[in-house]
Amino acid sequence: MHKDAIARIHSSFAAQSMMETLGAELFEVSSGLVRIKAPILPGTRQQQGFGHAGLTFSLGDSAAGYAALTMMPLDNEVVTAEIKINLLAPAKGDWLIATGKVVKPGKRLCVVTAEVHAVSDGTETLIAVLQGTMVPVPR
Amino acid sequence: MHKDAIARIHSSFAAQSMMETLGAELFEVSSGLVRIKAPILPGTRQQQGFGHAGLTFSLGDSAAGYAALTMMPLDNEVVTAEIKINLLAPAKGDWLIATGKVVKPGKRLCVVTAEVHAVSDGTETLIAVLQGTMVPVPR
Amino acid sequence: MHKDAIARIHSSFAAQSMMETLGAELFEVSSGLVRIKAPILPGTRQQQGFGHAGLTFSLGDSAAGYAALTMMPLDNEVVTAEIKINLLAPAKGDWLIATGKVVKPGKRLCVVTAEVHAVSDGTETLIAVLQGTMVPVPR
Amino acid sequence: MHKDAIARIHSSFAAQSMMETLGAELFEVSSGLVRIKAPILPGTRQQQGFGHAGLTFSLGDSAAGYAALTMMPLDNEVVTAEIKINLLAPAKGDWLIATGKVVKPGKRLCVVTAEVHAVSDGTETLIAVLQGTMVPVPR
Predict the structure, then answer these.
(1) Is the pLDDT of residue D134 over 90?
(2) Residues ≥6 apart with Cβ < 8 Å to C16
């Protein structure tokens, strides 16, 4: 990827205050693939003490959205039209890592998937899969 | 609803630190229907300044989950098995209000929907619809 | 609705050979709402003798798609971008009736829902709910 | 896989009259993975002459369901609790091939995905992806 295209993703990510609230970091950006990681903070838990579904969703949705944005023109932003999450296991561990991928790019619609893993003592467990549709919007 | 059943929902909600981070409040609990509201805080926004999809999702998912919990035995908790969100309009305004409803209760699976409205100067706009499956787990 | 707009839905429906294979009939067309019904034929069953999920899906998807088409320009056709179905009960009875509705019309995307009921001796049971996105395409 | 387990899948598939109506054949069964193929018959088309979304769905849903069944006890059958399909391209060509895979097996819920390809002159095009939940039921 061109450095301007990578910078655009970092700049959009940095403008999402929700990502900062969740402690999330963008740590891989390549064409059609983006990875985001976040700890399970004291303030992002559900009633049993595990990471909240909203945390897992936010990371998966953002990774998928930015994966889509890597394949869109530089003057576009991206929004989620729809996305579905299947939660497979509790979000527990040191980190969550969301990997978003483009399944089918398109000018009007971009179909994406994401996987979210929980990392505990170096072991990764798949805790969620997402499948959705991203749409380009003018910046 | 029996007051113990209502208290159980409030107690579970209060144990979700994510709800506090989002500034969310539980403001209606009846059999098969739960409403949650939250402001769009400075820390829960996306890159264009609107509420983040993760905020809208978290409110809708929680309202739907607690609607399911109103119809489960008192010694159960509820977790999301899967849920899908269609986003209809930007999350902008003074408040978001999520209304979760039970479509089909069940011992193993409970099918739910939720609507999320943005309220601006007293006008409500439907910004998202969700459809999903909740499962009971031992408390 | 204008009679040309109604005729357009009937003409598109009649061109779907799948609907004839399933024995499906269009029996209500109004702005943003379409109803389709079909028997559970000997040839559209699953392994336990109930209607196949593919039958329930086909009716729900078509009702939702045509509901969207009632709100699109006359020179458009409609295709499904994505749709999700939650199956609530076995498809058994005399008829299945699918009711599709528009949640949010739009030039690029139209968000829809559908419900499918099984009718047995005059009693209706909700057997499935669907939520999806339709897109206009040139005719 | 044990030959009894493979025979069970073939026997359940053969009992689905819908699969015969669609001209579908089960052509690969292994642990956690099932492939089904079908032609685009004159009777399974949509209004533009391509394969109907209901055909693509039926093949993907069945492949995913049988993939789940390969990992369930021999005295179980499987039903779809919910499934979502994203349609990526028109269903046109000589054959459709649906590949179902298990993402996460489980006693109560089994999370699955499926891909559907259209094959035209030996070239495969990905036309749909599905993600869903299967549940075991007594035979």
Answers:
(1) yes
(2) C62, D45, D46, D47, D52
**pLDDT tens for residues B101-112?**
999 999 899 999
Per the confidence metrics, is the pTM higher than 0.95? yes
Q: Is C126 exposed, middle or buried (0-12, 13-18, 19+ CB in 10 A)?
A: middle
- Chain B adjacent subunits, 3+ CB pairs under 8 A: A, C, D
Selection from A10, A35, A37, A41 nearest residue A114 by Cα? A35
Cβ(A76)–Cβ(A53) below 8 Å: no
Distance from CA of A121 to the nearest CA of B (A): 24
Write the residue in D88, D111, D126 that is nearest to A129 by C-beta.
Answer: D111
- Report pLDDT for D7: 94
- Nearest Cβ partner for A43 among B20, B62, B85: B20
Interchain proximity A131–D131, CB inside 8 Å = yes
The predicted-structure confidence for C75-108, as pLDDT tens digits, reads as follows: 899 999 999 999 999 999 999 999 999 999 998 9
Domains and CATH numbers, chain D: 3-138 (3.10.129.10)
Tell me what pLDDT residue A1 has: 84
Q: Do D77 and C48 touch (CB under 8 A)?
A: yes
How near does any CA of chain C get to the CA of D39, in Å?
A: 13
Identify from A109, A130, A134 which residue to disrupt to test chain C contact, counting C C-beta atoms within 10 A and taking the largest count. A109
Q: How far apart are CA B118 and CA B129, in angstroms?
A: 12
Q: Between chains, do B131 and C104 touch, taking CB under 8 Å as contact?
A: no
Mean pLDDT of B14-32: 97
Sheet holding A76-87, edge to edge: A25-30, A33-38, A95-104, A110-120, A123-138, A76-87, B76-87, B123-138, B110-120, B95-104, B33-39, B25-30
Contact indicator for A109, A65 with CB cutoff of 8 Å = no
Tell me the pLDDT tens digit for each residue of A31-68. Answer: 999 999 999 999 999 988 999 999 999 999 999 999 99
User: Does the beta-carbon distance from B21 to A12 stay under 8 Å?
Assistant: no
Among C80, C82, C86, pick the best mutation site for testing chain A contact (most A Cβ within 10 A).
C82
Nearest to C111 among B104, B111, B129 (CB): B129
Q: In chain B, which residue's Cα lies nearest the Cα of A11?
A: B47
Parallel, antiparallel or unpaired: strands B33-39 and B25-30: antiparallel
Please give, rounded to a whole number of angstroms, the shortest distance from the CA of A84 to a CA of chain C. Answer: 9
Strand partners, B111: B104, B133
H or E element in which residue B107 lies: none
